[in-house]
């Protein structure tokens, strides 16, 4: 690597040395405060390092106007590497990533904008190596920028010697500063005092050089192919801490990204990047466990405008797992797929000069952001924020026998990538929420997050309204299934007295949509007999029943029961004679009078049990 490339780091060292020396001379230990803050931040990012690296990859792609980039992840016994095809590094990005609380990303475009997330890598590694190509190039060629961030840069003899020379030069030019430093550290020379204090600063603020030979060595160790490198603009390599807790974090992080359908409540296949507009594929090669997983996100049909700035999309996320054995690959079965209906819009989108709602939302955003006292440089120009709501849906191949089964209230709130906060419904929600520092939690009590949650609630209503208009009953059932209740903020709102769950979302037997409180259905242990009692009848409403779609009644009774209380029809409904007709009990007895003991034993047993006290 030539001298011009080295100047990126040399110039950075000189600027930071100058600031550091000024702080030492003035008795301002800001650098110790930064180091302390960095350690606390790293501790807050337990298990989130891979999420942060993928988020960075998405942000770099979006800033470059890209929507279908690829991320590659490779793990060996001692390394994990993440490559992306977004915007390469330049001087400004080197400066930002080796600082703290410094970012040139804006909150309306990028997910990461606090200038701290990358430091999560120090949860699993003592250093992070960054290799990035020239603009328009890729890493099948020589990297244009190569450096590493370490916890203890002054343990490196070459760097320490060069930094000593820089310090001596600085203090030789500034005698007053040298005297001030030596006055505070009487037993040491000014140079030794600066070196000692610099070693106490956050290590990542003094990145170290890497060579082309180091890059080539890493490529060989990781076993990255020429095709992978040709699709990579930036590669982050982490030499792993080999302690058991660290390696367990790496395994858990890989599993979280890949997702599966096996464990209850786990992330569906490839859902981890459902809401990342800049990434379409993630390739995960885990050489430790001998597994390759190819994750992909595709748009199945053309998007549809729903009015008021909302857009409906049908996406599929796919995870294809292959067990690798030596040089051969053993196919491990069909890919796991998850289909999604996604509705999205920009809060504050539209022309504020002609659109009153856009103008109102922009003003509300500005007021909410001011109330949060967020960093001006990242938030001052934020006028619109994306919000999306997604519903996981069964695939067409599942067949009629599976239709109407609950989806599971496993939705997550996402800040692009999943947090650990449940929506309490099958619905997933993503927005540029202002989350906890590691983006695992969201405070919905502040005005900014409340505004985005209000929009998510509105979009959920828009999505269900559109689902109710779908042509097939199997699709229309999803309106009720989307309200399967667990614990979460969206569920709490949806089940409020005027919430979405209280509206006409239940597909009735006659094809209409009704409110759940209008249902009058058999008790759960009466369902099998009810089918027999109602055989041959076109409707049972005159008897006092109001039934949902048969598949919902059969397969999603628990969901229906949470939507409204007191929906079970009274026992008297079985004995009612509407308009002088036979009761349901009489109708069944007449219809099956010649069926023999197989019917009568079951029928009479049910009648005696049901009406024992009548």
Note down, in words, how this protein is organized:
- This protein has 614 residues and is of the alpha+beta class.
- It contains 21 helices and 18 strands.
- The strands form 2 sheets. The protein has a 16-stranded mixed β-sheet that branches.
- Strand 1 (69-75) and strand 2 form a beta hairpin.
- Helix 1 packs across helix 5 (157-173), helix 1 crosses helix 6 (175-184) and helix 11 packs antiparallel against helix 13 (447-467).
- The longest helix has 24 residues, at 3-26.
In terms of topology, how is this protein built?
Elements: H1 3-26, H2 30-44, H3 49-63, E1 69-75, E2 79-84, H4 91-97, E3 127-132, E4 145-150, H5 157-173, H6 175-184, H7 190-198, E5 208-209, H8 212-222, H9 226-230, E6 234-239, H10 244-258, E7 279-286, E8 291-299, E9 304-307, E10 310-325, E11 328-331, E12 336-347, H11 356-372, H12 376-379, E13 385-393, E14 412-415, E15 417-422, E16 428-431, H13 447-467, H14 473-476, H15 478-481, H16 489-494, E17 504-507, E18 513-515, H17 527-533, H18 550-555, H19 557-563, H20 584-591, H21 597-610
Parallel strand pairs: 1-7, 14-16
Antiparallel strand pairs: 1-2, 2-6, 3-4, 3-6, 4-5, 7-8, 8-10, 9-10, 10-11, 10-12, 12-13, 13-16, 14-15, 17-18
Helix pairs in contact: 1-5, 1-6, 5-7, 6-7, 11-13
């Amino acid at each position: 690597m030539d001298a011009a490339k080295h100047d990126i780091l040399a110039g950075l060292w000189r600027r930071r040395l100058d600031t550091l020396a000024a702080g030492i001379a003035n008795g301002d230990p800001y650098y110790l405060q930064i180091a302390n803050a960095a350690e606390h931040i790293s501790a807050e990012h337990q298990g989130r390092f891979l999420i942060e690296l993928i988020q960075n990859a998405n942000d770099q792609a979006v800033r470059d106007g890209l929507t279908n980039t690829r991320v590659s992840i490779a793990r060996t016994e001692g390394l994990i590497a993440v490559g992306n095809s977004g915007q390469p590094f330049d001087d400004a990005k080197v400066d930002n990533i080796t600082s703290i609380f410094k970012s040139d990303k804006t909150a309306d475009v990028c997910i990461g904008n606090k200038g701290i997330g990358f430091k999560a890598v120090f949860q699993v590694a003592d250093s992070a190596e960054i290799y990035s190509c020239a603009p328009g190039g890729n890493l099948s060629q020589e990297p244009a920028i190569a450096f590493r961030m370490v916890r203890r840069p002054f343990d490196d003899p070459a760097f320490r010697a060069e930094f000593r020379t820089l310090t001596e030069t600085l203090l030789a030019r500034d005698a007053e500063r040298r005297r001030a430093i030596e006055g505070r550290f009487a037993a040491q020379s000014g140079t030794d005092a600066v070196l000692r204090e610099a070693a106490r600063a956050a290590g990542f603020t003094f990145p170290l050089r890497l060579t082309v030979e180091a890059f080539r060595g890493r490529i060989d160790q990781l076993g990255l192919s020429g095709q992978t490198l040709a699709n990579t603009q930036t590669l982050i390599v982490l030499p792993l801490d080999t302690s058991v807790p660290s390696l367990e974090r790496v395994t858990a992080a890989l599993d979280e990204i890949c997702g599966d359908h096996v464990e209850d409540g786990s992330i569906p296949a490839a859902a981890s990047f459902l809401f990342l507009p800049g990434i379409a594929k993630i390739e995960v090669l885990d050489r430790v466990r001998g597994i390759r997983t190819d994750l992909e996100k595709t748009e199945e049909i053309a998007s549809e405008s729903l009015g008021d700035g909302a857009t409906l999309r049908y996406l599929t996320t796919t995870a294809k797992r292959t067990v690798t054995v030596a040089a051969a690959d053993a196919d491990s079965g069909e890919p796991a797929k998850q289909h999604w209906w996604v509705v999205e819009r920009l809060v504050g989108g539209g022309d504020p000069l002609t659109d009153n709602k856009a103008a109102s939302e922009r003003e509300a955003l500005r007021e909410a952001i001011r109330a949060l006292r967020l960093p001006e440089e990242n938030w001052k120009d934020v006028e619109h924020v994306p919000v999306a709501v997604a519903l996981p849906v069964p695939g067409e191949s599942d067949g009629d026998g599976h239709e109407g089964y609950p989806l599971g209230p496993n939705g997550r709130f996402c800040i692009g990538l999943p947090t650990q906060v449940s929506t309490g419904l099958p619905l997933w929600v993503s927005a540029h929420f202002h989350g906890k520092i590691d983006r695992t939690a969201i405070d919905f009590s502040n005005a900014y997050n409340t505004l985005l949650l209000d929009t998510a609630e509105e979009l959920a209503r828009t999505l269900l309204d559109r689902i109710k208009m779908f042509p097939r009953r199997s699709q229309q059932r999803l309106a009720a299934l989307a309200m399967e209740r667990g614990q979460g903020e969206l569920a709490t709102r949806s089940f409020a007295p005027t919430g979405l769950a209280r509206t006409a979302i239940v597909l009735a037997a006659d094809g209409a949509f009704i409110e759940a409180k209008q249902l009058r259905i058999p008790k759960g242990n009466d369902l099998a007999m009810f089918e027999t009692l109602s055989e041959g009848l076109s409707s049972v409403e005159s008897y006092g029943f109001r039934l949902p779609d048969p598949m919902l009644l059969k397969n999603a009774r628990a969901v229906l029961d949470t939507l409204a209380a007191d929906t079970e029809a009274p026992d008297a409904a079985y004995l009612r004679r509407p308009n002088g007709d036979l009761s349901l009990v009489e109708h069944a007895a007449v219809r099956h009078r010649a069926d023999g003991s197989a019917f009568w034993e079951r029928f009479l047993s049910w009648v005696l049990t049901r009406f024992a006290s009548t």
